[in-house]
Design goal:
heterotrimer, A mainly alpha (about 290), B mainly alpha (about 200), C alpha+beta (about 550), A: about 290 residues, about 0% strand, B: about 200 residues, mainly alpha, 7 helices
């Protein structure tokens, strides 16, 4: 826990050096961009791999790849060298959100028309509902970051700057990702005890964050839980790499096992969303001071 | 019927994760096996060769399968399948008797060895064999129809579809270990599977 | 010589010098206890679904156990090729005669010869009997009751399902509640999708098949890669055969495995008790003394061994005072319907039977016959498919080649149907002898009218299912059978059965049978899970009898 707190503090301080006039909002904006970048990379790699598995049967299957790539570029730039709000960024973020929503509907339709419809076998193995939802989150978080980058900027979706909204989006995102990990780890019958981690730690972080959002009082424990969740996302990738190696042929059979084994790009989504949660804590803290 | 997978060759995956060492070892040995028999003699081998040619034709435009060699190996080893109808002798004895009998039927019907009669004549004779209409003295106690369905067909067909050329022609995935398949649902294929070419 | 039966492995035992192969590690070994030819508590003949769990569970109770198998001890990762012809080395290809109106196909179809037995090449379908099928005489009015209550079997099923990490649906549509399967379902292949759509169209339940292949890595075993060569042996160890599950457990518990050891005769003393077995290994005959002998060679080799062990006191064969040894041989109907569809099916991918309907196993109305059947999706490999086409449709020459080249668009459904016990269907000894000088079995089988009616109904129904999913040019495969059972039936008294509910022979108190031959009826599902559950029960019962001093 203390390591998590230290990590979260470190993340929160990263951009203190380059603090712009309206400190907390700029800092939160940059954290959100960082979080969105991580989530976007996860979506980029995951959608590329999974739509390759789906043989790109539908031309629309390239859209999430293009949009997550765009989102990654723009959010990445905002993280490393903030350039402030831009119409292009706004358009990319909003489109990513829209494509994510459409993808969610499309994936649901696709699962529904399989033999057996919404039974577990199709939720396990057919078009995943969690993946387009993550693209939707990328768009939302990117938009929030863009809105916060220049608080003076005009009215468009100004509510997205509200600390409570940022916190709620991060919490909902975490909850959704927990649900996806829960489903897919159930598919894997929780054969490794470590598989319980992403369905136990992030829910605590989510609840703690929600409480802070409701009480408008960020607590150290929330920082700690979110920091630990961020770290877990990275460690999860290592676990998944080990999982790939346990499949027949191991890494030598990578063309099959990268897709058949646990998905490498999935766990970092937790990290990105946890960072977005930390951004919300920054805003809440600032709100209390102000 | 035209080959629907003209660009596909199972053996192109030889060095890929679809083949393990054991598979390479046994396929290598199988494909270089020559049709030499210790137990059949020239005339019977010639009859058998003709049988193989008519019952299990070679795939067009692909490396020929060495079906004859595999069948001879099975006969020479007298390797049974774990069951035979009462009255049907063991593998080698049954084949020896049947090859002689088929040749005798050809000589009686067409005045030439089975290896030398025309394709049409051979096919008519085989059709009669499959329908149990051959009763020449050379068959002895061997029931021709039983031999056809319990010995001749399973032995020839099993040997024929043991060759990679036949796998390629039918678009079969071929050896698959350690790498198996990802896309199992109807209408999908992995990049290492054959692509159906629409006529 | 190539391919046919000539691996050096076939002639040189691997077990010995205090070790046995580790089936999960290339070139690996497990330390193994050895008993020499000193008298042991149990010698078990056969290491398949019956012998392997029994060996493990008896050794765990502290009994000294030797389990012998006529076949080789393989390490699948390095010994198995992706090849139908080469993998013939897994099958019982020794001479056997078949006759009757419908001579059976044995060998690859249902008879294994390897440590692990037929579970090395079974299709992994792991089903529980319908409860009423343990008492079909009293509940359904046909066949004969088992001497065991289904509720007791339900507990042993659970034990085996856990041991084998069965992958299955969260909710099973038929029968009484069962615990959740240890692992989740596999993705469905095309054949399974067609079964599901057809069942939906016909308004009956279907589900993903409970199956003994891993859907996650467990220990050193890899999850299934859907390579599709299941019935020729799994080269990844995803398949939970006896070889990779019970056998290592048995060895760790102190059992000795003797591979390439063909038991030819059970010896008895003047009092009629078994004293041990004569077995052939490494080119010589040996004698193993044992306080108890267990025959676990499946429904042909077990009666053959009992019959070949006849002596002056028991001239009709050991344990045969009822005259039922070898009688009531049952198979299961394995008829199929096939058709062609527009989409590519590529049935060679994945386990062959990933979806199933037990509707007609649990529904008694609307039938003009007795007994139940299930049906499953199918995935034949090329040589097997060629034999099916040639045999069933009489194709040869270019017609066969052309039909073979349409295989990727072919979809099929296959039944597993209950055959009723019939004393005329039986295993006897032929006059001919095999490579060991032992008289070979003669297997006599004919369908009854009941079975013919069942297969007509099943094939018509499966065809309807295929056609409901758009299949064209459908055709029937009417001559296939699969699993065996019933030649040393268990029962409640010595006059009408060979062994009691524990598998103990009525005539020879230290002779036991533990395999599918004890089945009084075979039900409408694949037998492997039931054989293993019975073996677990027999092991527990032996322990209980020993504690009471009744062994």
């Amino acid at each position: 826990m203390s390591t998590g707190t230290a990590l979260a503090r470190g993340i929160a301080r990263l951009n203190d050096v380059a603090r712009a006039p309206r400190g907390a909002e700029r800092a939160a904006s940059r954290l959100l961009s960082a979080g969105a970048s991580v989530v976007a990379s996860s979506v980029l790699v995951d959608s590329a791999m999974e739509h390759y598995r789906g043989s790109f049967r539908d031309p629309a299957m390239v859209l999430p790849i293009a949009l997550s790539a765009g989102s990654l570029l723009l959010n990445g730039r905002e993280t490393l060298a903030p350039a402030g709000p831009s119409t292009l960024a706004r358009m990319v973020h909003v489109t990513a959100g829209a494509v994510g929503s459409a993808g969610l509907a499309f994936h649901a339709w696709n699962v529904g028309k399989q033999a057996g419809g919404f039974r577990l076998v199709n939720l396990f193995y057919r078009a995943p509902l969690g993946a387009p939802a993550t693209l939707l989150l990328t768009g939302l978080i990117g938009t929030m970051a863009e809105r916060l980058a220049d608080p003076a900027a005009p009215r468009f979706a100004a509510f997205l700057r509200a600390p409570r909204v940022v916190g709620t989006v991060a919490a909902m995102g975490l909850a959704g990702t927990v649900a996806e990990a829960g489903l897919l780890h159930f598919r894997g019958a929780y054969h490794d005890p470590a598989m319980w981690l992403p369905v136990s730690l992030p829910p605590l972080a989510t609840l703690s964050l929600l409480r802070d959002v409701l009480t408008l009082a960020p607590r150290r424990m929330t920082y700690g839980l979110l920091g630990a969740t961020a770290a877990m996302g990275v460690i999860g990738m290592a676990f998944h790499a080990y999982g790939v190696a346990r499949n027949m042929g191991g890494w030598r059979n990578w063309r099959q096992n990268l897709l058949a084994g646990p998905p490498l790009p999935a766990p970092p989504s937790f990290s990105g969303l946890a960072v977005a949660g930390i951004a919300a804590l920054r805003l809440l803290k600032d709100m209390r001071r102000g | 019927m035209a080959d629907r997978y003209p660009d596909y060759d199972v053996l192109a995956k030889w060095d890929s994760p679809s083949f393990n060492d054991k598979t390479r070892e046994i396929l290598h040995a199988r494909m270089k096996l020559l049709p030499r028999s210790k137990h059949l003699g020239e005339a019977r081998v010639a009859t058998l060769a003709r049988l193989v040619q008519r019952v299990t034709p070679q795939p067009e435009g692909r490396a020929p399968a060495n079906t004859l060699a595999l069948v001879i190996a099975k006969i020479d080893a007298d390797a049974g399948d774990g069951f035979r109808p009462a009255g049907l002798p063991r593998v080698r004895a049954a084949w020896q008797c049947a090859l002689d009998a088929i040749n005798a039927e050809a000589r009686e019907g067409h005045g030439a060895a089975f290896a030398d009669i025309s394709d049409a004549q051979a096919d008519v004779l085989l059709k009669a064999l499959s329908e149990g209409q051959l009763h020449g003295a050379a068959w002895g106690n061997l029931d021709a129809r039983t031999f056809w369905s319990w010995r001749l067909i399973p032995d020839l067909v099993s040997a024929h579809w043991a060759h990679p050329s036949l796998w390629s022609a039918m678009g079969f995935g071929g050896p698959a270990s350690p790498r198996g398949y990802l896309r199992q649902q109807a209408g999908y294929r992995d990049p290492w599977e054959a692509e159906w070419e629409h006529a | 010589m190539i391919d046919q039966r000539h691996d050096t492995l076939d002639h040189t035992p691997r077990c010995g010098d205090g070790r046995a192969p580790d089936p999960l590690v290339p070139a690996g070994w497990l330390p193994m206890r050895e008993y020499g030819e000193d008298e042991v508590d149990f010698v078990i003949v056969g290491t398949g679904a019956g012998g392997a769990p029994l060996a493990a569970k008896l050794a765990e109770q502290g009994f000294s156990v030797i389990a012998m198998d006529a076949g080789a001890f393989f390490r699948p990762l390095e010994d198995f090729a992706s090849d139908e012809m080469h993998q013939r080395k897994l099958y019982w290809t020794d001479d056997r005669l078949v006759d009757g109106d419908n001579p059976l196909q044995l060998g690859a179809n249902n008879s294994g010869k390897a440590v692990g037995g037929s579970t090395i090449h079974f299709a992994m379908v792991s089903l529980r009997f319908r409860p009423e099928h343990f008492a079909s005489r009293s509940k359904l009015g046909y066949g004969v009751d088992w001497p065991i209550d289904w509720r007791e079997m339900w507990r042993y099923y659970e034990e085996v399902e856990r041991m084998l990490h069965i992958s299955g649906p969260v909710r099973y549509p038929w029968g009484p509640k069962r615990p959740r399967y240890p692992l989740r379902v596999h993705p469905m292949n095309a054949g399974a999708q067609y079964l599901a759509r057809g069942a939906k169209a016909l308004g009956i339940d279907w589900t993903e098949t409970p199956i003994a292949t891993l859907s996650t890595p467990i220990g050193k075993a890899h999850p299934c890669v859907y390579r599709g060569f299941c019935v020729t042996g799994c080269s990844t160890n995803a398949k939970q055969s006896a070889l990779v599950t019970w056998i290592p457990r048995a060895i760790r518990a102190g059992a000795e495995i003797r591979d390439l050891a063909m038991v030819g005769r059970i010896e008895t003393d003047a009092s009629g008790r078994a004293t041990g077995v004569h077995y052939h290994r490494a080119d010589a005959w040996h004698f193993q003394k044992a306080r108890h002998v267990v025959a676990a060679g499946y429904a042909i080799e077990t009666p053959r061994l009992l019959l070949n062990s006849a002596n002056a006191a028991q001239p009709d064969g050991l344990a045969n005072s009822s005259g039922l040894v070898g009688r009531n041989l049952m198979v299961q109907l394995n008829q199929a319907a096939w058709g062609e569809v527009d989409k590519e099916v590529r049935a060679y991918k994945g386990p062959p039977s990933l979806a199933i309907s037990e509707h007609w196993n649990y529904t008694d109305a609307g039938k003009d016959y007795l007994g139940g059947w299930t049906y499953m999706s199918q995935g034949p490999l090329p040589a097997q498919w060629a034999r099916t086409l040639a045999r069933t449709r009489g194709l040869w020459g270019q017609a066969l080649v052309d039909e073979m080249n349409r295989a990727n668009h072919t979809v099929g459904l296959k039944m597993v149907g209950e055959v009723l016990p019939n004393e005329a269907n039986r295993v006897t000894l032929a006059d001919e002898t095999d490579q060991y000088g032992l008289r070979i079995p003669r297997v006599t089988f004919s369908y009854s009218d009941n079975e013919k009616r069942m297969m007509r109904h099943a094939v018509a129904f499966m065809k309807q299912s295929l056609e409901a999913t758009g299949a064209r040019d459908t055709w029937d495969q009417m001559d296939d059978t699969c699993h065996l059972g019933g030649t040393a039936r268990m029962g409640r008294n010595a006059a009408t059965s060979v062994v009691d509910a524990d598998g103990r022979s009525w005539d020879v108190p230290n002779l036991w049978v533990c395999d599918g031959s004890v089945f009084p009826t075979v039900g409408g599902v694949n037998p492997s899970l039931t054989i293993q559950a019975l073996a677990c029960r027999t092991a527990d019962r032996i322990g209980a009898l020993a504690r009471r001093g009744e062994l």
